[in-house]
Amino acid sequence: xxxxxxxxxxxxxxxxxxxxxxxxxxxxxxxxxxxxxxxxxxxxxxxxxxxxxxxxxxxxxxxxxxxxxxxxxxxxxxxxxxxxxxxxxxxxxxxxxxxxxxxxxxxxxxxxxxxxxxxxxxxxxxxxxxxxxxxxxxxxxxxxxxxxxxxxxxxxxxxxxxxxxxxxxxxxxxxxxxxxxxxxxxxxxxxxxxxxxxxxxxxxxxxxxxxxxxxxxxxxxxxxxxxxxxxx
Length: 232
Hints:
The protein has a four-stranded parallel sheet, sandwiched between helices. 41% of the residues lie in helices and 17% in strands. It is an alpha/beta fold. Helix 7 packs across helix 8. The chain has a single domain, classed as ComB-like (putative 2-phosphosulfolactate phosphatase), CATH 3.90.1560.
């Protein structure tokens, strides 16, 4: 078994088998925007994030915990009846401090659900790249990097983060070269990606430069057995 496997297509992480997951530590990437947004929420004082795949499940959990905030999007846009969208700019201390958050997104929370059963599950973005690499080294290989992708397809934005993480883990992978080729212009490259252009269409392109910032938070959101992400 290789030390590092990168699933850069959703079909790849959907096909992960139980035995392979049990042996591996998974890092899930949805840089535009789920894994960036949830990290900022935790950094701004949210005690936990509960990622869920579906809107109905989110509303059901809200009914069980009325004090929790509903956050999420479909097609980049906030959901009707939700307290927050999926923007890191919304995750201020005033809005999320001391409040649990229930999050559902188009791509990222689906990838997290697919990694259930892994030896460890963390979320990665540019905002916490070095912290995640350090945690994965502590846990030890084998590692799986699961790129959420874009609407079921390859996502350039997530692949670039995967390459950066592979480099930080001192692993030889083709995506390292991809990252090195664009690291001097990360914000522009993310904005030009399919996910970035989707945000342009809905007027949320100001989120992209935030998602492109390197190592702003030394925090590693970690998925617990109860299905919630906390800073471990």
